[in-house]
């Protein structure tokens, strides 16, 4: 089964199995999964069958954020977290 | 009877060999700069952009992200660099002192690889694998550690995947007497002991992420106790760790403007080295994940292009190339702003995918905004390459030039091969320069996967293929 196939993850910089890509986002796959795997097997069709429609949308139809905005969001979340702990 | 005589040649090192007539019988392979010739300033391309970059907008306020928004995680001296429009920024002497441990890096001529390719090309490469951790990453790690130190920071926190960035920052922090905490994605922590050990050797605290020491990590572990982690999770932990300690800040190894700025020393050195031998490239190439090594080499040349030089600048991205014949679709975003859902680009039965998938690499998240902007302005171009093609290129490189490249570097080498083949077909002479961004000595597991056939394409059983095709039967076809 494709879960055991290996590829080099361009985000991490080491080998991962397809099984890792499927759970990279916690309960959803890595948004790069189709891009990384589509020349190895029909990954998009495979995921269409495996994922619920909402999960598909959460994973593949989201507009990717710029890094700086991700940082700002994480900073805000961390500041709130810090205040809560106090 | 010929005998060999060693002579020191201006600009070349260490020695060149001449016969008894004084004729040079050994071709030059390396171009060195003396330490005194090392660039004293970084180059900031923001000053030369034909059109200004749009500032990122704060998701909460809708206003441009400002210094205060970033102050909890970066020292103000680095934030000033992040937003600077000054063309040249002085490299502080203490930073130069540390960079001198391995810089200036040599510029090589890849004569053996040229011979293998048998094409009318000259191939030069900047060897960034000579740094202690073996990649270009310390160029910015050293600078960032220094600026944090002079700002009064005691500890840096960061995330790392397989450990290339983490090891560079660990070394840099040690150099400036800072503590370093690295959240390493758990799957990499378990699979990549050598990078982890490098970090620990340089005195860093390397923690598998998700961890129990941050709220973000604990939340993930509660939900998914056996989580292998992800880069996103590790970033969350590193940011939380930095924000929670007034003496700590966060450090990022790619994407941001100041990171790219620090890397421009690569291209500035290359320009001096090429000038010494009276050459200039037709094509400049590098692999681009977040974009820092590519930017480091290409930005000074992009400046030349903006001012009229005829030069191609090509970023290669690690991705798959859709060469399969049985698959139903290739997907890409429908617009450059990435606002549309992924769109089907071809269907089963079509021979090959159209251009968008190949030009799409730099449009994806995680890429440096400066590079996305240069792509939009057509100052640089992007190319996506298949992993099998890149490893084949890397193996051929190792067997001719000796050095084993990092798997990411293989993408640049594979693109060089493509350019050489094109030059051969067109019968045109080309000079190619690329960034050999790092060695692959601690990435041999990736070579093992390739050599043992684990990276081969997977033949989905016919029954499974048909089942899969049925699942997308209702989706629109182009």
Structural notes for this entry:
The complex is a heterodimer of chains A (86) and B (478). By secondary structure, chain A is mainly alpha-helical. Helices cover 53% and strands 7% of the residues of chain A. Chain A has one domain (2-85). Chain A has five helices and two strands, in the order E-E-H-H-H-H-H. Chain A has a two-stranded antiparallel ribbon with strand order 1-2. In chain A, strand 1 and strand 2 (15-17) form a beta hairpin. The mean pLDDT of chain A is 87. Chain B is α/β, with parallel strands linked by helices. Chain B has three domains: 1-29, no CATH class; 32-54 and 67-132 and 264-478, 3-Layer(aba) Sandwich (Rossmann fold); 154-246, Rossmann fold (3-Layer(aba) Sandwich). Helices cover 39% and strands 16% of the residues of chain B. Chain B has helices spanning 67-70, 76-82, 93-99, 111-117, 138-150, 164-175, 186-191, 193-201, 215-223, 231-243, 257-263, 265-276, 292-306, 355-359, 369-376, 387-401, 407-426, 444-451, 462-471; strands spanning 5-7, 16-18, 30-31, 41-43, 88-90, 107-109, 121-127, 155-160, 179-185, 205-209, 248-250, 283-287, 312-318, 331-333, 342-344, 381-385, 430-436. In chain B, the strands form five sheets. In chain B, strands 3-6-7-17-12-13-16 form a seven-stranded mixed beta sheet, with helices on both faces. Chain B has a four-stranded parallel beta sheet with strand order 10-9-8-11, sandwiched between helices. A two-stranded antiparallel ribbon of chain B has the order 1-2. In chain B, helix 13 (292-306) links the parallel strand 12 (283-287) and strand 13 (312-318). The longest helix of chain B is centred in the C-terminal third of the chain and has 20 residues, at 407-426. Chains A and B meet through strand 1, helix 2, helix 3 and helix 5 of A and helix 7, helix 9, helix 10, helix 18 and helix 19 of B.
């Amino acid at each position: 089964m494709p879960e055991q196939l290996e590829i080099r993850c361009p985000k991490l910089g080491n080998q991962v199995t397809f099984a890792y890509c499927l759970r990279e986002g916690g309960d959803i796959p890595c948004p790069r999964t189709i891009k990384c795997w589509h020349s190895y097997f029909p990954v998009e069709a495979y995921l269409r069958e495996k994922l619920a429609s909402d999960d598909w949308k959460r994973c593949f139809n989201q507009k990717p954020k710029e890094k700086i905005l991700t940082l700002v969001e994480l900073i805000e979340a961390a500041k709130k977290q810090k205040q809560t702990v106090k | 009877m010929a005998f060999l005589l060693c002579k020191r040649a201006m600009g070349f090192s260490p020695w060149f060999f001449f016969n008894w007539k004084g004729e040079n019988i050994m071709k030059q392979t390396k171009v060195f700069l003396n330490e005194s010739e090392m660039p004293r300033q970084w180059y900031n391309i923001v000053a030369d952009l034909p059109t200004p970059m749009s500032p990122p907008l704060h998701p909460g306020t809708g206003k441009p992200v400002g210094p205060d928004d970033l102050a909890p995680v970066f020292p103000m001296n680095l934030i000033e660099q992040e937003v600077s429009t000054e063309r040249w920024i002085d490299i502080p002497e203490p930073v130069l002192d540390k960079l001198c441990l391995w810089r200036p890096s040599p510029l090589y001529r890849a004569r053996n690889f040229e011979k293998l390719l048998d094409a009318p090309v000259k191939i030069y490469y900047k060897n960034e694998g000579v740094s202690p951790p073996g990649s270009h990453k310390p160029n910015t790690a050293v600078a960032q550690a220094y600026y944090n130190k002079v700002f009064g920071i005691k500890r840096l926190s960061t995330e790392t995947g397989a450990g290339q960035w983490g090891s560079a920052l660990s070394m840099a922090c040690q150099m400036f007497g800072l503590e370093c905490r690295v959240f390493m994605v758990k799957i990499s922590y378990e699979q990549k002991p050598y990078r982890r050990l490098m970090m620990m050797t340089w005195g860093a605290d390397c923690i598998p992420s998700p961890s129990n020491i941050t709220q973000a990590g604990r939340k993930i572990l509660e939900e998914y106790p056996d989580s292998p982690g992800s880069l996103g999770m590790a970033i969350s932990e590193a940011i939380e760790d930095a924000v929670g300690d007034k003496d700590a800040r966060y450090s990022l190894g790619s994407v941001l403007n100041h990171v790219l700025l620090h890397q421009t020393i690569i291209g500035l050195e290359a320009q001096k080295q090429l000038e010494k031998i009276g050459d200039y490239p037709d094509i400049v190439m590098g692999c681009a994940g977040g974009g820092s090594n590519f930017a480091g080499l290409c930005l000074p040349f992009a400046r030349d292009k903006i001012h009229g030089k005829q030069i191609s600048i090509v970023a290669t991205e690690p991705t798959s190339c859709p060469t399969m014949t049985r698959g139903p679709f290739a997907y890409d975003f429908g617009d450059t702003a990435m606002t549309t859902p992924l769109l089907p680009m071809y269907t089963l039965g079509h021979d090959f995918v159209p251009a968008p998938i190949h030009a799409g690499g730099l449009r994806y998240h995680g890429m440096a905004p400066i590079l996305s902007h240069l792509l939009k302005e057509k100052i640089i171009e992007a190319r996506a390459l298949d992993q099998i093609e890149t490893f084949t290129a890397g193996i051929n490189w190792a067997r001719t030039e000796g050095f084993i490249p990092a798997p990411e570097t293989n993408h640049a080498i594979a693109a060089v091969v493509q350019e050489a083949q094109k030059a051969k077909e067109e019968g045109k002479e080309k000079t190619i320069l690329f960034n050999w961004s790092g060695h692959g000595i601690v990435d041999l597991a990736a070579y093992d996967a390739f050599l043992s056939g684990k990276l081969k394409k997977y033949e989905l059983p016919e029954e499974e293929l048909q089942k899969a095709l049925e699942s997308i039967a209702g989706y629109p076809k182009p």
